[in-house]
Amino acid sequence: MEELKKKLDEIVDFDIKEIDTIWDEADIKTLEEKHNLKLPQDYVFYLKHYGNDYIREDFRFIPSIELPKKIKQTQFEIDSIYGLNNDENRLDDKINTHWDILPYGLFPIADLPGGDLICMGKQGDKHNKIYIWFHEMDVYNVVQVCDSFERFIENFKRVKVENNTLDNVKLSLGDKLNDFLNNASKNMK
Fold first, then answer.
1. Model pTM?
2. Which domains does the chain have, with CATH numbers?
3. Ranked by mean pLDDT, which of 51-65, 131-145, 168-182 comes out on top?
4. C-alpha–C-alpha distance, residues 63 and 126, integer Å
5. How many C-beta atoms lie closer than 10 Å to residue 102's C-beta?
6. Which of 1, 66, 111, 181 has the greatest CB tally within 10 Å of its CB?
């Protein structure tokens, strides 16, 4: 678990980490029993020593498995990885919120901007594998991205983050909204 700890220490944004609780086996067992889970040791390690973490803005997750051609992205910004602390990233709450939305056999462990989720398989051939659930796709909206939680964490890579300025921000408006705004600005002159 030393390599996992080293990588987590690199990618977790400790500047905004508010709680530094270490959870014990009883807390994990309670969660497992409540949601009928058998969590892998790498994820248990994360939950015990980390959890409820935001990822540094200059790191992206790059899948270790080739994604289907319909997925145009090759890297993914991860907002937060859930944990046991009682805040907006509490794993128990996220499981309860998404149990009837996610495909059977998956539970959420992290989120991406815009509502997509990183999930873990909880049984069968999906057990302990990591998936992205794309909430806006109608068909085949679950894609495996890693074979384990540790591999998921290992696949975070530092990227150059471009700071947004008026020169590099592109705004795309629908035709109706664009016409409305243009007419409104003419009327204000």
1. 0.81
2. 2-188 (3.40.1580.10)
3. 51-65
4. 16
5. 19
6. 111
